[in-house]
Amino acid sequence: MTSRFILGAVYATALCAAIFFTARPATAQESMPMKSSPAASPKTEKKDIIETALGAGNFKTLAAALTEAGLVEPLKGAGPFTVFAPTDEAFAKVPKADLDALLKDKKKLTAVLTYHVVQGKVIAADAAKLTSAKTLNGADLKITASSSGVKVNDANVIKTDIECTNGVIHVIDTVVMPK
Question: What's the rounded Cα separation, in Å, for the pair 15 and 171?
């Protein structure tokens, strides 16, 4: 188990480093809540969900958790998937002892991570019309749209419609936990 975790962490770290040097910072327009990101330019090659998240640079904890849970390869698959991706800052809100315990319990970790993934591609405009979405762990996420933006359970959606070859990522500011 330990060697598999170390190999996974080495893979995630190496991939982060490789992608870090090719990633571009978000523009002000892309950082606005509930505004769709512009389409990829012809010079920008789309990447899958995992490569895109790693390239963004603010999903290191998510990448480590996905590696530990064995979910990297499934999320590199054909999809399509919609991922509500918590940032490193979102994971920092989880008490350290709770996060450490979660990272050591593969079953619970998998349940939490698959609670952030919906089968199919749900763009922001469609998500804002929903009241819930069934996740890969079988439970429903509550979706609330208002004039201040969209929430998934208690998490604010802070960036939307990050297009990937196998789906779409919406960035959230809080780790959502299944009940």
Answer: 20
Look at the domain 2-24+44-172 and name its fold. FAS1 domain (2.30.180)
| Listed residue (174, 141, 142) closest to 157, CA to CA | 174
Model-level pTM? 0.74
- pLDDT for 130-178, tens place per residue? 999 999 999 999 999 998 889 999 999 999 999 999 999 999 999 999 9
Residues in the chain: 179
Residue 49 · residue 81 · CB < 8 Å: yes
Burial degree of 178 (CB within 10 A; 0-12, 13-18, 19+)? middle
In the chain, what are the domain boundaries? 2-24+44-172
Q: Tell me how far CA of residue 144 lies from CA of 29, 45, 90, 124, 151, in angstroms.
A: 23, 33, 19, 12, 5
- How far is the C-alpha of 91 from the C-alpha of 144, rounded, in Å? 22
- pLDDT digit string (tens) for 64-95? 899 899 888 888 888 899 999 999 999 999 99
